[in-house]
Amino acid sequence: MTDATVARDPRLDLQRLLDSEKSLEERNRMGQYATPPSMARDITRAVLRYVSAREIRFLEPAVGTGAFFEALLAEASNSHVVVRAVGIELDERIAKASKEYWHDEVLEVIQGDGTDVSLLSGERFSLLITNPPYVRHHHLDAATKRALRKRVRAATGLEVSGLAGLYVHFLLATHAALEPGAVSAWLIPSEFMDVNYGRALRQYLTSQVTLLQIHRYNASESLFDDALVSSAVVVFRTKPPEQDHHALFTFGGTMCEPAQAARVPISALAREGKWTRYPGDEPNGESGSEPKVILGDLFQVKRGLATGDNSFFIMRRSKANALGLEHTCLRPVLPPPRELDLLVVEADADGYPLLEDPPVVIDCAHDKTTRGQVHPRLTAYLEAGERQGVADKYLTSKRKIWHAQERRPVPPILSTYMGRGEDDDAPFRFIRNHSNAVATNVYLLLYPTKRFADWLEGRSDKDDILDAIHKLLTSTSAHDLRAVGRLYGGGLRKMEPKELASLDISEWFEQRSPLPDSESLFRALFMQQGTLDIFE
After folding, report:
1. Strand, coil or helix: 430
2. Statement to judge: residues 189 and 220 lie in one domain
């Protein structure tokens, strides 16, 4: 379909008119993001390959103006016939417009909640293709969540997290509207593949239905400019999977002609917590075995400082000097990643980062009386902050002493926790810290575990070992780092402390490892865990 054809599409013109009648904020709250026609055609064309029966009974539980029904009529013309079609739309205004637009076709439009299968009076369907509303959980009130969870429980027996978005409830609740062997395809955010609140959906896809394909569109490609670039298309058949079933994972390009593809055993998916690692670099995508050693065996991973108001508590050292703030209540702190392009931070004679005018953070645990006696200049600054309401902000108001920061030792190694990166470009950056600076919560901080710290204690090569670990982290493949992070809109990736701690570092302990004294370290840390076979 050419751009010129899309521009003249009367259904698309109707969609644009309806969209213009609501503010972006209203559409965001209701999760109303129309499917681009090119994407609807690509998805429908790919899904029809899994439909063997000629006659189709079609359900669209979030029909909108009928993008997928329009695509189905176009793509099914030579191979299938649509004998029955039902679309459900919650927005009364859109339901009315869609009903009028399709009045000459087989599509019946019902105004109502697509998660409520009672609207269908027991009727079941052989094909479902939809883009459900993307409504985040905080836009769902408690009563709505209870009703949704009840519908999911009735349809699948599964319990959904209270943090799950509406699309999770949509997919699971409509299970009851599909006939055995039906094919179902959902254009949904790919976040479910990694996050804890997607667990029920992942369980459903590996136990109650046969997962056929998951396709993720590449955020860096301009094929679908107007689509949510973090979207995944999930295709499954409503019958339990065979024990040796393999699901197709594809990435980039189109669903029919992806840039990457791998078949992954359903048994691996059932125990795997991170599905966005597929398709990966492994042959046939058949990774999923538990790593023998993870980064969390060596390091505790903590978030950096959350000050409650960086603009008040953090300033350049020169400004602190100009204000006369007492040095005993200041700590050096690293600048944010966008202002720090180093992989190794050296220290000056005072332990401050060897940077031009490094920042400091106010950290004073004295009560008001003592503070006024020993830190008069700081007291004046803090009193000005109180008048500005800094002490009443969420985090500061929760503290016993509002200007005392969290206890964070100096981290020897840090990592950025968000970034972008495709192909060989790593989305996260590791930094070796030789200074006395702490860091804010735009970083993840790595501290040696007790067993690792005990092993390091007193060693003359302690810094050499930490330097070597930093080099190993820096050389970690972009694929492995993407596997422990989460993908968000616009190609942004984020990594939580537990996710970084799960990074597989088994290869560090092979005899060819550049890590100094790796065998001694491995034996000291893991000889009680039955994993010494790494050296056999």
Report:
1. strand
2. yes
The per-residue pLDDT for range 225-283, each reduced to its tens digit, is: 444 447 899 999 999 999 889 999 999 888 988 988 999 999 989 888 789 888 864 33
Which residues, at least 6 apart from 131, have a Cβ–Cβ distance to it below 8 Å? 33, 35, 62, 64, 67, 68, 186, 187, 188
> Does residue 349 lie within any of the structural domains?
no
| Residues 296 and 224 grouped into a single domain | no
pLDDT, tens digit, 9 for 90 and up, residues 269-286: 988 878 988 886 433 334
Q: Closest Cα to residue 161, out of 206, 121, 135, 198?
A: 198
Question: Is the pLDDT assigned to residue 534 strictly greater than 50?
Answer: no
What is the rounded CA–CA span in Å between residue 197 and residue 300?
Answer: 24
Cα gap 126→504, rounded to integer Å = 42
Give the phi and the psi of residue 491 in degrees, each rounded to 5: 80, 10
Tokens 């009193």, residue? 383
- Among 228, 211, 82, 81, smallest CA distance to 165 is for 228
Contact (Cβ atoms closer than 8 angstroms) between residue 235 and residue 185: yes
- Are the beta carbons of 44 and 129 closer than 8 angstroms? yes
pLDDT tens for each residue of 313-367: 999 999 999 999 988 899 999 999 999 999 999 999 999 999 999 999 999 888 8
pTM: 0.61
Pick from 261, 190, 269, 291: which is nearest to 506 by CA?
291
How many CB atoms neighbour CB 364 within 10 A?
A: 22
Domain extent, residue 370, equals 311-334+357-405
Which is it for the CA torsion 289, 197, 494, 448, positive or negative? negative
First to last CA, the chain: 59
458, 415: one domain: yes
Q: How many domains does the chain have?
A: 3
**Domain contains 347:** no
Same domain, 330 and 231: no
Is residue 350 in a domain?
no
* CA–CA separation, 151 and 156 (whole Å): 9
Cis link prior to 61 (omega < 30° from 0)? Answer: no
**454 CA to centre of own chain:** 35
Q: CB–CB of 429/416 below 8 Å?
A: yes
In this structure, the number of other CB atoms found within 10 A of the CB of residue 339 comes to 9
Report the C-alpha gap between 115 and 110 in whole angstroms.
Answer: 12
- For the chain, state the CA radius of gyration: 28
Other beta carbons within 10 angstroms of residue 154's beta carbon come to 12
458 in the same domain as 319: no
Residues 396, 80: Cα–Cα separation, whole Å: 63
**Which tokens go with 272?**
């795997």
